[in-house]
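Example 3.
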Amino acid sequence: MSDAIIRQTHADIDAHQFDTLAWTTPPPLAEARVAVVTTAGLRTDGVTMWSNSDEGFTIIPHGEKRLTLSHRSQNFDRSGFNRDINVILPMDRLDELARDGMIGSVAPRHLSFMGAQRDHTLATMRLDTGPAAAKVLTDDDVDVVLLTPV
Amino acid sequence: MVGTLAHVLEAHGLATVAIALIRGQIEKTAPPRALYTQFPLGRPLGRPDDPEYQHEVLAAAFALLERPAGPVLEDFPEVLGDDGDTPLSCQMPLRHDASLHPAVDEALGIRPAYNRTLQRTGASSVGRVGSVDGIPSILEAFVRIGDGVPHEEAAVPGGDLLAAAMDVRSYYEEAAQALVDHVPGARQVDAWIYGDTEAGKVMHAAQRALHATEGVPRPLWYFLMPMMHSRIKP
């Protein structure tokens, strides 16, 4: 069995269908503030097992490297992250892009949820924790969000 | 989940671009902008310790922000496979204390490697059911389960089989980082744990015993290790 099989078995999982497509036009990338939101289940509080069915999020200060990969799923590679957290949360890469003027700036905070939730419709995230996450980001004047899964 | 999150964030005034690892899911959620990367699960930017490659992925993702309308779903042109069929090759400590179960002796032997990784990273994902010092006790409990002791009587630390099994996996994963001097291929460390180590033998035996015991709920044995490395096929 390989990732190809997992891709196949997970492709048919139900998901909420949005009736309309929200659309926000970003400023030019060279002027944009960029944050990362990942679904890897990353934490800074030392908790190493994300609670079952917890659709909440954690806040990761930019530059914080002492992160635990607390996702409950066994079915993805963790050794890449153990070697280089940028393969999930590319904070160093964003710093380099900001330094080179490719992006305007890096957000002071990034966020993590945990994917592979039992409730495939993600109702709590859509109605509650997702908007709360958006407020954290807009409070930081973020323009662009890069979303990364595992 | 990234597709659904993108819809929510976008509706609150944030422009999003999602990297996707499972095409079927991102097609269903159809977020405003998505880049499908056929990379190993767990490595959305492709290659650890390869800044140039990660920048290529980011450039492809951010380029989608220039599109005037969506939903946009683009494929990153390069496919990266996993190496789950090729166990990591690394030097293991010699047997030290023959009075211990081989898996316990092995786990104690790789503790210095685990410590070196912890020193480098400053954080560990071990600790779901107790401190790293409890890894030998976890392995002893899984040995008992493999020997036929009911899991309720096996004294699994914390009483949570899945969490305890994940602690063993994290301990070996993090130790492995200090046992080799290169970036492991995706799933190579898992292939080593569940194919070559004494701990892996213990976990397979425990999974077989749980699977063979009437009344044991499926999740208790099914999630004991990555699906890819289980020898029990659903």
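The first strand of chain A starts at residue 33 and ends at 38. Helices of chain A lie at 3-11, 79-83, 91-99, 123-139.
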